[in-house]
Design a protein that fits this description.
It is built from eight helices and two strands; from the N terminus they run ααααααβαβα. The chain is mostly helical and 179 residues long.
């Protein structure tokens, strides 16, 4: 039953990738506001973190930041539908990449890209994968349907080597040493 519901949700997400970006963003805004209102535990964690990081801000300012994050996170989740299913041409129009010439070393040495783990990370990673295969780290998901979707979505445009964070750093270091 759980897998059937997961497949149903994946089908719904697939439909979303056909929407124009402004419509997808509007849905992300609604979803973010809804998650903020209903997700008491996650909202509480966000507000505690913001209180610790920004003690000089008022509670209202921290609540506004938390709401903005819930919206940005929701939009990023819906943006993943584009990375998983939109055409290469559409993604190239939507995700601009500068410094492409730095991705592949003319001498064949591996290039290490350090990227902060922000909500838009996947959009950039999908765009980079259109130019070069790479090695990346991901977290296994508890739900096998979504785990497969995330894994295949990240390998869609190249034969990238994905390593599970749960497997530890040794495999990651070994993969980098092997080029």
């Amino acid at each position: 039953m759980k897998n059937a519901l997961s497949h149903l949700l994946v089908g719904f997400l697939w439909l979303l990738h056909w929407l124009p970006l402004p419509a997808l963003r509007g849905l992300g805004w609604i979803l973010g506001k809804t998650l903020y209102a209903l997700g008491r535990e996650r909202r509480s964690v966000a507000l505690i973190n913001l209180r610790l990081c920004f003690p000089e801000k008022t509670e209202a300012e921290r609540e506004a930041l938390a709401q903005q994050h819930f919206i940005a996170f929701s939009r990023a989740v819906l943006d993943r539908t584009l990375g998983w299913w939109a055409s290469k041409e559409r993604l190239q129009r939507l995700v601009r990449l500068t410094g492409e010439e730095h991705l592949i070393d003319p001498g064949g040495k591996p290039t290490i890209i350090l990227s902060p783990h922000f909500v838009g990370l996947d959009a950039g990673a999908v765009r980079v994968s259109m130019i070069a295969a790479g090695c990346s780290i991901y977290s296994n998901q508890k739900n096998p349907v979504f785990n497969k979707l995330l894994y295949e979505g990240r390998r869609r445009f190249s034969d990238s080597f994905l390593l599970s964070r749960q497997d530890g750093m040794r495999k990651i270091v070994r993969a980098m040493k092997e080029g």
